[in-house]
Write a structure and sequence with these properties.
Oligomer: single chain
Number of helices: 11
Structural class: alpha/beta
Radius of gyration: 23 Å
Mean pLDDT: 94
Low-confidence stretches: none
């Protein structure tokens, strides 16, 4: 029998476990988990702060999951080195674990710029894990003034989670808009307005230059007094294990459509990977939960001798703040890049569909996200728009836009 080793214990690892067990029900699986928690749904940590969920409900699988999957989980352990020749990993406690097939699902870590004076700040936190959330919760009071550095998804979800539990929240970012990596100015403005209406203050195009205890000195010359600091500037893929072992690494660990790295019998999945984005036509890190699971499942099946591929990855985001929801997917090409955009605006709603070369390549939906999965499937499957009634689909995500044969194939006989 084989011995499979998985480094990491997030959603990608769960996919990997299930992929292995879909092919091999007998061999041993060892999971190296730096966190001391079973696999959980990381995007729910802000809802925990809001009181909308609890630690048990955040679990991604049942309490007997690892037992049912015949997995040994090494909690609180970190893999520090990888020897591709002897096919062994070494943990931070010196233990050496051999493997027949290995999956690196090590995720990502917060990026913290070298702010001057940061060491003088007592109550400073990241916001990526359950432990981050519990530590932050322990530090806040109803009178706390919170400064969040970073107006991306992590920072804004933290702001939403804290809103009813603290006195003031200020979010700053060097970018001139919120969610700058996924929204343009107009779309970001809609989201920012909603956040401001719910009591979140912003300093955009500005960020901290240095700290002195509970004071942030901004690049603009302003000063901000705070009690609690949250650093949500960004994340970086954890690539060092594969890189140090001689594997191909860029922003993430380079994988092919089978989730193989450049090293023999070593696979990778999840936020630490970089693979093909079919909507863009080039590689990028796609650090989102659905892709992590699908990558993991593909990797696991192939580790066990299967022949799976994951060849339709695209960026996707489903976000919401204080009741205003947005969904984005794919890539947005401008007219200068040969693309076209269809747009509809309403009262608190916006729809943008981006097309190029007869294909839907991306979309932005704000306010009304009903049946957005239909648009997502068009991007994933590279459906030629001349094979459907796209003019109808622009107006309404209806099954009627597809031919009878396509409806039966895609959705079954009920539509």
């Amino acid at each position: 029998m084989k011995q499979y080793v998985i480094i990491g214990n997030g959603v990608a690892a769960a996919g990997c476990i299930e992929g292995i067990r879909s092919v091999d029900t007998e061999s041993k699986i060892i999971v190296v988990s730096e966190e001391k928690h079973p696999v959980y749904c990381r995007p729910l940590i802000s809802y925990y702060l809001e009181g909308k969920t609890d630690l048990v409900k955040m679990n991604y699988r049942s309490s007997d999951y690892y037992e049912n999957m015949s997995c040994e989980v090494l909690y609180g352990k970190k893999a520090v080195s990888l020897n591709k020749d002897s096919k062994e990993i070494t943990l931070d406690d010196g233990k050496v674990i051999p493997y027949d097939a290995l999956c690196v699902a090590a995720g990502s870590s917060p990026f913290v710029p070298p702010f001057a004076g940061l060491d003088s700040v007592k109550n400073k936190f990241s916001f990526m894990t359950i432990d981050d959330t519990l530590a932050l919760e322990n530090a806040i009071t109803k009178d706390s003034k919170v400064l969040i550095v970073g107006a991306g998804l992590i920072g804004l979800k933290c702001a939403e989670g804290l809103k009813e539990r603290v006195s003031e929240i200020t979010v700053c970012d060097l970018a001139d808009r919120v969610l700058s990596s996924i929204l343009d100015n107009e779309c970001a403005s809609m989201m920012q307005k909603n956040l401001e209406e719910n009591g979140i203050s912003f300093l955009l195009g500005d960020s901290a230059e240095r700290f002195e205890k509970n004071t942030a000195f901004m690049k603009s010359g302003k000063t901000i007094e705070f009690d609690v600091l949250v650093l949500a500037v960004g994340v970086r893929a954890n690539t060092s294990l594969v890189k140090d072992a001689g594997g191909n690494v860029n922003r993430g660990i380079i994988v092919n459509e089978k989730m193989e790295t450049s090293l023999p019998d070593i696979y990778s999945a999840g936020d630490c990977t970089e693979g093909m984005d079919i909507s863009l036509g080039s590689n990028r890190v796609l650090a989102i939960l659905p892709n992590a699971y699908m990558q993991g499942k593909c990797a696991g099946a192939n580790m066990a001798g299967g022949s799976e591929v994951f060849d339709n990855a695209i960026p996707m985001n489903s976000i919401g703040f204080f009741g205003l929801h947005a969904m984005t997917a794919g890539s947005y090409f401008t007219e200068n890049e040969g693309g076209e955009m269809y747009e509809e605006k309403g009262d608190g709603t916006l729809k943008r569909l981006f097309t190029r070369d007869g294909l839907l390549t991306g979309f932005i939906l704000i306010g009304n996200t009903k049946r957005a999965g239909i648009y997502t499937s068009l991007i994933r499957e590279k459906t030629p728009l001349d094979s459907i009634n796209f003019d109808l689909l622009k107006k309404d995500t209806t099954f009627a836009a597809f031919s009878h044969e396509s409806r039966i194939s895609k959705f079954g006989g009920a539509v």
